[in-house]
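Chapter review: from sequence to fold.
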Amino acid sequence: MRNDWSSLLRPRTLRFKLMIASIGCILIPACITILIYNYLTRDTVKEQAVSNANESLKLVDGYVTNTMKFMLYIANYIQIDAEINAILKKNAAGTPYEGEDADYQQFTDVSKITSKIGNITVVGEKCFVTILLTNGMYYTNYPAYEYNPKLIFKEPWFGELEGLNGFQSYWVGTTPTSFLSERLVRNDYQISVARTLRQGSLEIYGYVIVTVLENQLNPILKNLSPDQETLLLDASDRVLSHRDSRKIGTYFPYVKQALEAGGKDIIAIDAEDYLLTTRQLGVTNWKLVSFSPYKKAIFKVDSIFKKMFIFQLGSFIVFLLLLLYLLRAFTKPLVRLGRVAATVRRGNLEVRSNIRGNDEIGLLGISIDQMLDRIKDMIAEITLTQARKRKAELAMLQAQINPHFLFNVLNSIRMKVMGRGDRDSAEMISSLSKLLRMTISQDKDLIPFHEEVEIIIHYVQLMDMRQKEKVHLEIDVAADVLMQKVPRFFLQPVIENALLHGLNQCAGTITLRAYANERQFVIVVEDTGQGMETHKLAALRQRMLTGAIGAGEEQEAGQHLSSIGLANVCERMRMTFGDAFEMKVDSEIGQGTTVAMYVPKEAEGRSDV
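The C-alpha cell string follows.
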C-alpha cells in the first residue's frame, strides 16, 4: 500500500501529473468562483429583493389600474352616449314634458338612463354611479335612501370640478363611506372619480361621479407577504389604501426621505434598514409603495445563497477525494502495462498483462496480449506464407502455359485443315481460337469497344457455321467511340438473343450501330426477326427494372452458350456505369426487335476494374 502511494506521488509519474492537473483545474476555478461569489452575493441578494418587491407592486398595479380603468370606462360611456346626453341636456335646461303621456315620457327617460347605468355596472367591480345635474336632478344605480346625491354639492372637493374640461377627471381620493348599507357592514372608506358634463365645451349642466369602496382594493394588499407593507399614496404621500384601515389618511414620510437620499431603495429608519420601492400608476398621479425590513426581505434569498455555498463546498471536497481515488484506480492498469512493456523489451515474450475490460485500457491490454500471442506464430506463418506464395506463382505460370498450349494446338489443327483445302473449317477454328484467346487471356473487366466488336464478329461467324441459314451482321460504328471502355462480353448475350430467339435459325440481318452525342455513348442492336409478343416484352422490361432472372432466361441458361440474359446485362451495366445508364427494348410481332443502350459519358473516366 505504501509503495502504491509513493509511486503515486512521484513527481515524474503519469499519476502525479494527472492529479496535479486535475486538482489545479478544479481548485483554481473553485477559489475564483468563491471569491467572486462572496463579492457579488450582496448585490445579487439586493437586486433579487428589489426585483421581488417590484414584481409584487406590478401585480398590485395591475389590479388597482384595472379597477380605475373600469371607473373611467363608466364615466366615458355616460359622456359619449348620445341618448343619455340628450335626455340630460333636456332635463338640465328645465324643458317640461308635455302632452297626455308626459308622465310616461318622463318615466321612460329615467328608466333608459338607470337601465344603461345598471347594465354597464353589472359586470366588473361593484360601483356606485351618480349623475347629478346643476338643477338638482339626479340619476343613480342605487336607491335614494342609501345616499342623497344632492349632498355632493357640499363636498369640500366639489369646487375642484369647475376647472375640468372634456374627459379630464378628478380623483377624489379616500373619503368616509357615504352609503348607508356599506357603513353598516363596516366598509368605512370609498374612492371616487368625478367628471363634468358640459354644453359643448362651455357651460356645465351636470356631473358624473363613479365610486368604489376602498376595501375592494384591500384584498390584493392583504394577500402579499406579511413582512411586506404595501400602500396606495396620493400625490401628497397621504395613505389612500392600506391593509390597516387606521393608517388611511395619515402621512407617509419615507418616500420623501428616499428621494432626498438620491432615490435609494434602502433607507435607514431607527438604525434599521428598510427596503422601499415605488411604482407610479398610469391613470392618475397616485403611486404604490412597497415597504419592508431589509433583513426580512432578503431572508429567503440570502438563506438560499448560503445553503448553495455550503452545498458547493461540501460537494467540492467529496468530489476531490473521489477524483484522487478514481485516478489511482484508473491508472493502475497503465502501470501494469508499463511493466509488461519493460519485460518484453528485455526479450521475454512469455509475459502477459491479463488486463481485461470494455474500456480503452481493457481493449489495449487484450490487444497487447494478442499481439504477444501472435508474435510467436509470425515466424512460422512467414515461412508458410513464402512457401504458399511460391506455389501460387507456379500455379499462375502453369495457368499461363496451358492457354498458350491450347492456342498453339488449335493453330496447328487450323494449318493442317487449311493444307487439305477446307477453308470453312479453318476459318471456324481460327474464329474459335481468337474468341478463346480474348476470353481467357484478358485480365481486365473493361476493354475498348473495338475489341468487343471483334468478339461479336468472331461469335457470329461461329454461330453461322452451326445454323442452317447464315445471318448477315452489319456494323456501323463511329470512329470516336472505338476506344470507349465497356465491360467484356456485354454485347454477346444481346447478339445471342437476336440469333436464337429473334431470327430462330433463319436468315436475317443483325445491325450493330454505335455513336456518341453530347452526353451519351449510344449502342443499338437491331434484328429483322420475328419480334416479341406484348406480354413477353412487358415481362422482359419488368425483369430489366428489377434485375431478376426470369424462368425463361434460366431455361435459356441451360441450353445455350450465354447464361447472362438481357436483364443481367442491364444490371451489370448499371453496376459499371451507375443509375444514369439506360437500356430500352422495343419489339413487334413480325417487325423484329431493337435493343438500345445509353451509356453516360461520365463513365469514360472510370479506371479498369
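Two observations follow directly from the output. The radius of gyration is 54 Å. The first helix runs from residue 2 to 8.
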